[in-house]
UniProtKB/TrEMBL annotation, chain A:
Keyword ATP-binding appears in the UniProt entry: yes
Annotated residues for binding of ATP: 26-30, 89, 123, 174-178, 205-210
Ranges of residues in domain Phosphagen kinase C-terminal: 23-252
Sequence similarity: Belongs to the ATP:guanido phosphotransferase family.
Keywords: ATP-binding, Kinase, Nucleotide-binding, Transferase
Enzyme class: transferase
Protein name, per record: Protein arginine kinase
Molecular function GO terms recorded: protein arginine kinase activity
SUPFAM superfamilies xref list: Glutamine synthetase/guanido kinase
NCBIfam families in the cross-refs: PRK01059.1-4
InterPro entries: Arg_Kinase (IPR023660), ATP-guanido_PTrfase (IPR000749), ATP-guanido_PTrfase_AS (IPR022415), ATP-guanido_PTrfase_cat (IPR022414), Gln_synth/guanido_kin_cat_dom (IPR014746)
Enzyme Commission number, as recorded: 2.7.14.1
Length: 362, 169
């Protein structure tokens, strides 16, 4: 069902060539909305759920931002297809588990997805590669206002947008960035950073500590609180925190390069060698190697033009994507062979690492 | 990994160690691979200890009022168990339980952000109309015709204003 989406040559996260940036992988904003007069999805019966679906679908189809988009009924997707959509950040795990009458609208370039009957009636998400909180907000705000033209959204003057979980009350907005933070992880500063930002009501999601190497050094950082501050206040607080983290990350990288140049270049060089020659690669190892390749682009050891290849492979090497491209039902071991094949093919096309570039840095 | 930690759920050897800082407290959880998967911990998108913690905030206190939402039937026990509300009307019914929870959870307890102007004004004028129509009905039943005339005029005015607005837009 989802071939057109996978094979699209216009998807923001996997095909965006223009806007890659060091440290920041992508920016996302999501809004939760509910319709008055119908219980939240968890307490709604199946006819109420399908009624919500119909009403939302009518309204969403009218919006220009959804033109040429697709709709998937969750009940009609296979587990593997759902996993692929999760890996692309287009749907949540919660939606995969949901009862009948749940679905998702995805726009043409996969920057916008609207989940219906997840935890709330509507979960609207806009994402963009790179760091662009304001422009993502502008887009989602316009989309949301367009929806409200035709839907009676549950809202109270005291509590703002009413959501199934009180943790989302108020703006019902979660703004987040995906940050690639190898410098802070390697220099063991990540825990300190998390402690500091948390005092500002900001959450870092993901595994770290001893297992951190397994995640490709990618962290999702977002606001925890949604009530008592306006969207603008939340975003400006987040924006300054993100900028501080990015500064710290860059400092950590240069400090590490200065103090451990040979070791860092060795790690990057070996990673490149493995990606060009390995025949068996599991997901964790691939993420770590790709993380080092992203660092190599940041250090200009690989051309900037290849950043998008690395970012695309981050997603295409996830288990669901590998399995999808190999055809359903392959064993995890065979998956590791496929993953290595794909990476070998891609890295054979890349120019060799330019170690001289790093001489002038640090 | 010098220590041999056990999964906090099933006592298998823990391989996933999660640390998050929530409300300035460091919280560590050790899980085995399968429990971590089951709880969605390995999904950096969907898991936050804060979500778990906010539910522990919801443990019942003695002597607290038993509330049931007249619209969807959610009880205070349901709310304590799941941490979720059942419908928009629950936010009126559960205010006494919610206030203290919200204070801990958020930066403030009053909304300061976007207001869905169009939907909200449509809803408020509908609600106002409903109230006036009920009042009119009551006045007629009670044969309070002066009041009834007053309500009728008010209803008429609101409907006209809404029509004028519709024509404009």
């Amino acid at each position: 069902m989802i071939e057109s989406l996978i094979n699209s040559d216009n998807a923001e996260l996997t095909q965006s060539t223009k806007k890659g940036a060091p440290v920041v992988l992508s920016t996302r904003v999501r809004l939760a909305r509910n319709i008055v007069g119908t219980p939240f999805p968890e307490r709604a019966n199946s006819s109420q759920r399908s009624d919500v679906m119909t009403r939302c679908a009518e309204q969403i189809a009218d919006l220009t931002q959804m033109k040429h988009g697709v709709f998937y009924d969750i009940a009609e997707l296979s587990d593997l297809e759902k996993q692929v959509l999760v890996e692309r950040h287009l749907i949540s795990r919660e939606l995969c588990e949901s009862k009948s009458g749940s679905g998702v609208f995805i726009n043409k370039d996969q920057t916008c997805s609207v989940m219906i009957n997840e935890e709330d009636h509507l979960r609207i998400q806009f994402l963009k590669s790179g760091f662009s909180l304001r422009s993502v907000w502008k887009q989602i705000d316009r989309f949301d206002t367009g929806l409200e033209d035709g839907l009676d959204v549950a809202f109270s003057q005291e509590f703002g947008y009413l959501t199934a979980c009180p943790t989302n009350l108020g703006t019902a907005m979660r703004a987040s960035v995906m940050l690639h933070l190898p410098g802070l992880v390697i220099s063991e500063h990540m825990e300190k950073v998390i402690r500091a930002v948390n005092q500002l009501g900001i959450t870092v999601r993901g595994l770290f500590g001893e297992g951190s190497d397994a995640t490709g050094h990618v962290f999702q950082i977002s606001n925890q609180q949604t009530l008592g501050e306006s969207e603008q206040e939340i975003m400006s607080r987040l924006g300054s925190v993100f900028k501080t983290i990015i500064d710290h990350e860059i400092n950590a990288r240069f400090k590490y390069l200065e103090e451990n140049r040979a070791r860092l270049l060795d790690q990057i060089g070996r990673a490149f060698g493995v990606l060009q020659n390995a025949h068996v690669l599991n997901s964790n190892e691939a993420m770590n190697l790709l993380s080092l390749m992203r660092l190599a682009v940041d250090f200009e050891m690989l051309p900037e033009a290849n950043r998008s290849d690395v970012d695309r492979l981050f997603i295409e090497c996830q288990p669901g994507h590998i399995q999808y491209s190999a055809g359903e039902g392959i064993e995890p071991e065979a998956r590791d062979l496929c993953r290595a094949d794909i990476l070998r093919e891609n890295f054979a096309r890349l120019p060799s690492l330019d170690f001289d570039k790093v001489k002038d840095l640090g | 990994m010098a220590e041999n930690l056990k999964c906090s759920h099933c006592n298998n050897p823990a391989t996933v160690h999660l640390t998050q800082i929530v409300n300035n407290k460091i919280i560590k959880v050790d899980l085995c691979e399968s429990c971590a998967q089951a709880k969605g911990v390995t999904d950096p998108e969907g898991f936050s200890l804060a979500d778990l913690l906010s539910k522990t905030n919801l443990t019942p206190e003695k002597g607290e009022p038993q509330i049931t939402c007249p619209d969807c039937g959610l009880s205070s026990a349901d709310f304590r168990r799941t941490g979720r509300l059942g419908c928009a009307a629950c936010y009126q019914s559960f205010v006494p339980l919610l206030r203290p929870v919200l204070e801990d959870m958020h930066a403030g307890v009053v909304h300061k952000g976007k207001v869905p102007e169009i939907a909200f004004s449509r809803q408020s004028s509908e609600a106002e109309l409903q109230t006036l129509e009920n009042a009119l009905q009551r006045a007629i039943e009670e044969e309070a015709y002066e009041d009834a005339a007053k309500y009728r005029d008010q209803i008429h005015a609101i409907k006209q204003a809404a029509e004028a607005e519709a024509v404009e837009s």
